[in-house]
Structure formats: C-alpha cells, structure tokens
Amino acid sequence: MIRSLFTSSSGLRGHQQYLDTVGNNLANVNTYGFKAQRLRFSTLFAETLRGATPPRDELGGTNPKQIGHGVKVAAIDTIFRQGGTELTGNSLDSAILGNGFYVLDTGNGLVYSRAGAFSVDANNTLVDSATGFKVQRFGTVGAVATSTAPVFQDQGNNINLPFGATIPGRETSTIDFAGNLNASSDASVATVLSSSQPLTIATVAAQGVTPLSLLDQTTSPPYMTGDEILISGTRPDGAAVSGTFRFGIGNEVQTLNLSGATGGQFHLTFNGETTAAINFDATMGDVQTALNSLSSIMAAGSVSVSGGPVNQSAVEITFNGGMDVAELVANHAGTLVGANVSSAVTTTVDGDRNEVQQMNIVGATSGQFTLTFNAATTGDLGFNATASAVQTALEGLATIGAGNVQVTGGPANNTPLQFEFTGALAGTNVAQLVAANGTAALVGATAAGSISTTTQGDNDEQQQINLVGATGGKFSISFGGQTTTDLDFDAAATDVQTALEALTTVGAGNVTVTGGPTNIGVLNVAFTGTLASTNVGQMTVNNGSQTIAGATVTSAVTTTNEENLNTVNSLLATINRVFSSGSSGIGATASINTSGNIVLTADANGTSTPALTLASNTTDTSPTTGLTTFSNFAQTTAGATGATAVTSITVYDTQGAPHLLSFTFTKQAANLWDLEASIASTDGTITGFGRDNLVQGISFNEDGSIASITGNSTAQTLVSSTRFATPAPAGAAATGITVFSPATLAQNTVEYAATDVIELRGTDFDGSTVSVDFTTTAGGALMLEDLRAAIDAAYSGASAAIDANGHIVLTADTTGQGNLTLTLADAAGNTGQTAFGTLGQTIAGTDGDSNITLEINNLANFGTTQSLTLDLGAANSFLGLTQFGGFENVSATSQDGFAPGSLTSVDIDANGIIQGAFDNGRTEPLAQFAIAMFINDQGLTRVQDTAFRVSPNSGPATIGAANTGGRGTISGGTLETSNVDIATEFTRLITAQRGYQVNARGFVTSDEVLEETVNLKR
Length: 1018
What we know:
The longest helix has 34 residues, at 982-1015. The strands form 22 sheets. Strands 7, 8, 11, 71, 72, 73 and 74 form a 7-stranded antiparallel sheet that branches. Strands 13, 52, 64, 65, 66 and 67 form a 6-stranded mixed sheet that branches. 11% of the residues lie in helices and 35% in strands. By secondary structure, the chain is mostly beta strands.
C-alpha cells in the first residue's frame, strides 16, 4: 500500500470535521447565546527516511528526509466573542454585555450559560424557559428586610419573584418644600382695642399692681369684698362674651375625675339643671360647651374648663367671677367602664399674705401728724408727707425696722396712705397702726387709722418636716391618733407618702409628699383628696426607735397663699378669662400699657371686630361699694390677614393609609412667615408642644434666600427644690426683700458670720464653668435678693428670679438646648447654714424646629404621635423655599412615606438587580443575578442547550455580581444573539469543500497508481 492513500484519507476525515464544525455554526446562526466554534488542523507525525548530517571538511551538511502521514484536527475552539443584542420586550429576558455567564441549577449540579431567556414557573421561581434550570442569585439583595420592604427570597440561591405579594406602607417622616413666597405681599396684623382714657393714680399712669381703690377714676368709698365690675363684649371670632369681676374674691374651682374610664357617658348637674350626655373621653371643649348651654350658668365665658379628656386626667372647671357657686354633681346614664363618676369641690378662699393698713386724711390743707406702732411713735410728719417720707419714719422705729414696711399712696392729703408689712412682719396679723394729730393740729381733716387685711386662705394644707443635718437614725409621723412605722432619717418623699397613706386617718390619695431625702431638704406634705381645703389636724413628728443624730425633728404648718384680687392685674386676669377662646375660635388678651390704657389685643392676626365694655355694678346700693368710671374702648389698630400661600400633599400613617395634609404660609412681617399645618378632623389631629401644627419665624435674607426658622422653642429653666419661706406658723413664701441674715428664713436658722461664704457652682448655658463665692455680711440685713443678684451676675447666659412660691428660678436667656446647671452650698466652716436644696431642670430647652406632630384616628397605637420634619431648605441657600418679589409658586414637592402595594412587574438593571414595581409606585430590589467567571473560558465543556460545565482545564467558577471584578453589565429586556459570522462561515465552507476535494483527488490518484502497479504483473 502506498502512503498517499492514508495521507489523503486523513485529509478527507479532517475536512469532513471542518465541514461539520462550519455546518454547526451555520445551523446555530439564530440560537440566542450561541458561541461559534472554529477547527484548527495540525500535521500528523512525519516519518524520517534519512536524518540530517553535519558539514564536514570536504562536504557540506545534508537536510533530513521526512515524509508526513497526513493531517489531524488539533482543536475545536469556542469563540466567546460578544454577540449582538436583540430587544425582546420581555422584562425577564436579559443579556450579559461583556464577560461572564448566568448560573443555572440543573438539579444535578450547576451549569453556565450566556442565554438569558428566563421565565417564572408555577412556584414563582425564575428558570431557564427552555430547560427549567433554576436561575441562581448572588448576595443578600431581597434576602434581608429593609426599612421599606420585607424579605422576598427564600433560603437557598434560587430566585423567587412573588408576583402579587404585598409590601407594607411606611409612615411619612419628612416633607420637602420648594418654590417662592411673594416678598411683595402684605403682612398680617392683629386687631387692637384701647381705652380712650388712661387709668391713673394721682394723675400718674396706673400699673398692673395698682389697687383699684386707689385709681383716680374710683370714687370714695373704696372697693369692698364682693364689689362687682361687669365685663361684656365680643371676641375676635364674633362670639358674645360676658363676665363679672368680684373684688377680693377668687374663682370657684371644681374638679371632675374619671381617671381609668374606658367607656360610657356622664352628665353634669348645676343648680338643678342637667347637661346632655357627655362621653367618658370628652375633651375640655366638649364639657365647657355642655355647661355653657345651661341657663343657670347663662352666658358663654362664665365657666372655663381645663384638663381632660376626663378618662385620662381630671377636668378642672373654673367659675369666673369668684362666686361661691353650688357644687357640681356628676352622674351618668350609661355605665362607665373602669371608673366611678365623682366630683369634688376645692374652693379658693382667702388668707393672710402681707398685712395691709390704710390711713386716710383726705382734705387736709396743713398741719402735722404722727404714727404709733407697738407703743413707739414717729416724729411729726407734714400733712402732705410723701409715701417715702412716711416709710422712712416708720422704719426708724425699733418695733418695725428697715425693710419691714412698704408705704404707697400720698401725699397724705390727696390719697390714703397704704402700709404693707413685709419682710419679718409679712404674713402675720401685726398690731394695728394708730394715727394721731401732731403738735400742730391738722386743718380740715382728722388723722385716722383703719385696718383692711388682704385675706386669702387655705388651698391645700401644707406642713413641713425638717430634718436638715441628720446623719442617722429613724423617725415616725403621727396624725389623727395614729403613728406610721419607723422611717429612715434619709427617707425619700415617696417612702414618707406611702407610710402616711397606710394610716386610715389619711388614706391613699389624700396626701402628697415632695422634697427630701429629709436629711438634705424639707419634706412638704400637701393634703389633697378628701382632706383638701380643710384645716386638717397638724401632724406630730416623733423620733423612731433610733434617735436621729444631728437634727431635731420638727413639724410646721404652711398655708398656700395667693395674690390679692384687688389690683388692675386682677381685673385684667378676669377679662382674659372671659375673652379666652375655649375649645375653638380666636380669643383676646388684655394688658395695661405704660400710659395706663387698658389694651385688648386679638390672639391671632387677621380681620376681626372685637368689643369690650367695663362698668361697675350700680345695682348694688351698699354705701361701701366702690365705683370706677371706665372709658369707652376704640380700635387703635385695624386687624388684617397677611398674604397666604397654600399647598398640600398626601402623607401616610404607620399602617400606610393616606391622609391629605394642608399647609398655609402666612406673612407676619417683612421677610417673616409662619407655616400652619392642618388635617381633616376625620383623619386625625395635630398635637405636640405648644401648637405643633405651627412652624413660626420662617425668615428670609434680603437676597431672598431662607435665613432661619425659629420654630416652637423653649428656654431651659432650673428651679430650686427648696421653697424659701418665713418660719412657722405663717410660713409665707419668701420674696426678694426677705432677710435671711439675721436668720428669718425657715431654711436658715443660724445667722451667718462676716466671713461666711455661699458657693455658687455650675455651668452656664454656653458650657462655661461658673464658680463664684458669695460673701455674707454679719449683722446686716442680707436679703434673698442679694443672693439672687449674685446668681444673676454669675451667669451671662441665664437670669435668676424668685417666684411667687419662694423658689429660686434660673432661666436661660435664649431658647435651645444648653448646659445650664447650678448648685448652692455653704462653704466648709460656715457659721450660718441654709438648706438650699437642689436646682433641677423643670423645663428642657429645645431648639427651634420645623417639625409638626400628628395623631391619626383609629390606629391600633392611638395616642402615639407621628413626627414630621418639614424640610424648608438650608440656611442661606436657594435650594428650598425662596422669597422673591412678584410671584408665588410654593409647593410641598415630595414626602418619604407610601401606601401598601402589590408586586405587578419587574425590570432588570445594569447590575443584574431585578427591581420589582409595586402598584403603590414603589420600586424595591427583589434579587440579583449570580454571574460566573472562569480563568479559562475555552476550557469549559459544552452541554445541552448552549450551557457549559466546569472542566479540569477551565478552573473553578468565581461567582459575583454583574459590573464587578471584570464581569459585564446586564441589559434587561434583551437577549444576546449568536456570534456566528455568516460571511466567515461561508468562506470556511468553501475552503473546507476545496480541501476535501483535493484530498479526494489525491486518494483517487494514489488508487490509480496502485492499480497500475497491480497491472504490471499482467
């Protein structure tokens, strides 16, 4: 046999495979994701007939003689060149643009494919639509709950597309605003009424503290307890109002408590009349409306209600005008659940505060007089002596002393002189002054003295237990013949209260204890409940089974006193109650200006027509009735409503329910606006600190950019736990002029020495350290005001004051959060000692904010609030709200809440993340394709349906996300087409055909030669 037959035969076989490869490529020219192949030939081993020889001296070298044995297929390569893409419109189709393979689970191992024609099966699992192989995911996308979506993927790596699944809604927390407020628009103004004539005292403008009896407009005789001034008019909202001010009498206060009620109704009965049924959770406005409908209460404004809803806290009902009205009776038609209907009266009655006496020598034209007090007599005083001259003369008496009397009025022949005993003599029934003629007889008048005591009286009985300085031991408390168990010397107020309430003579709810621990500060015991407003038996405090070390057990009764109801301020307070807005509408506030005019200002800006008339009640014919001539009230400032701009947006509650929230911008002044939010009452209410539907003080710069937002803000306030008061039995609240060295404070029983130091330590509002030593003065009249002034001077960012109850109050000068602290303590080695107590924060400072707070009706968590931040823009920028002239286009542009939604469709992004579209407009990531890469793509083994498997020469699959680590991006809604190049394949087809053809010729020729060889034998 000749070699050429076998050589040509190998060529035929090789080119047949070449034709097969080209044919397969052409057959898959329209197969998505198909990768073309190419065939490479190599020669078969060559037979060496003679080897090569090297050159020699005489001859040159010779080449080898070799004959080849034909051709073989060296390799069939896969061409992983990128194929084209075809838009399919199917959202689940996708193509990889660049390197990488989809990962598919066959149920018997993983395969890898470039074909992205996917669909979901009956279980919502994403699969290859031709084979059912399950598409694999990568990472935690859709497998971990987020703030906006639940978990979508099951355990494992299959991709679940839960069409129809629901995502919960999310409550709105932020609303963004943009647009312009018109700088050229008009600002709002409140309506103001003013009395046409001022109130005066001796022709000088009256002040709020001026007694009504001393007004020039008041005719003699002066006011007596019970005298009436009639108040009538119209509120700015158009409601008619009327009320009565009664001289020297407080307001009747009654309390209705349905704490704990969860259902039912009740009625209120007054003077034989009964209201309609009132729900157990009625608001104070509901209760006030029901009471105002009774003819026995008459006009609106005769009663005011605070507190409530009544199932959450007590409702307090105040009868204006100070009458001792009949007690309210509460009952109910429907049974209340969880509470009993009860009513209790607490009457504001009068008692001693400062002793006030008067001397009247009106009409004198000359002469002198003297004043005698406790057997000591002043020098002669002129008939027209001024109040200061009289005060100086009185303070010169040893029986009075400096700082213990205050004189107003005069000169004595024009108005009565009034003496108010203060300081050490405050709150006591001091001996009455006696007035007599001097050495020169008075002309036209008789020196006379008359006492008129300002009485107020018990509110809640208060008593004190003072164990200041105790370092050990126990004590007990006796009341009504019963004694508590032993209490530790440093017992907390709650411990003492628990022990007292265990006594049947006291009972639960009838006593409140504050202060302590008892070795640090005074314990105050306030009798409430059934013991309120009664002169209860004084407690007796005894040592316990162990003697208390370092302190004497004492008890003292202190009475809660109130301000006298006989001044212009008292009248103004009654006017303000009458003109309060109640549960709706707009009220008004009365004040007195520096000229002595009474001014009534609407509580809100805008057009309104309020009216006010004041008149003494002339139907009382008693000869002791005081009469004041009040002038008419006229409008001095016409109210106007500022320009407004309105926008609205839908927000969502915690359950994803939508609610329309409206916003009204109102111009208050140049470059200054307020924003008010509102919601339909059927949806919810806007609550929170102050009026938390209001964002105040939105100010703009001159260039139109937003400057700042004041918002609703508070100033930080510290209040001393110790109530500074005079010693027992009076226990009157200390004032600035109260002397505490010599010791006249209940908290300061040992007089200070000259070198004693009170240490002021703390932190100012700005965070700076405060460390001041306040030095006392031995033997002098060191007043509480001196200590207050030292505190005030030590703090640059806060101001100190002494309130009406005798507490030291330190208030930050500005609103916002700060570092304000204060501690008062006696220095080591002091002779004098004072129980200063602690100064704790009673009001937390808050920065101005642009937040509003909602309560949505009918939620399972009703009562919790939903806070919304209004993003109006950054300061000094134009990115949010602006204020330019000439146009207005403000709007609430977006918010971050949404309603619940169901999955309706999907889309695939460039990173291979399958984004789910929900019918609430939300888009959430559901899963991410796993994309595999290999070190040697050519080493992959083809399996069915354009898929590949890992081979020993491909290297392991490296799984990751698209668009990372050299992996390609994903094109959704498209498929990668075959990368077969038809022109190239046709060229290869021709070359394969010709190759086969020439090898066939070689075979035939060899056959013919062989035939001739056979024929030689013939």
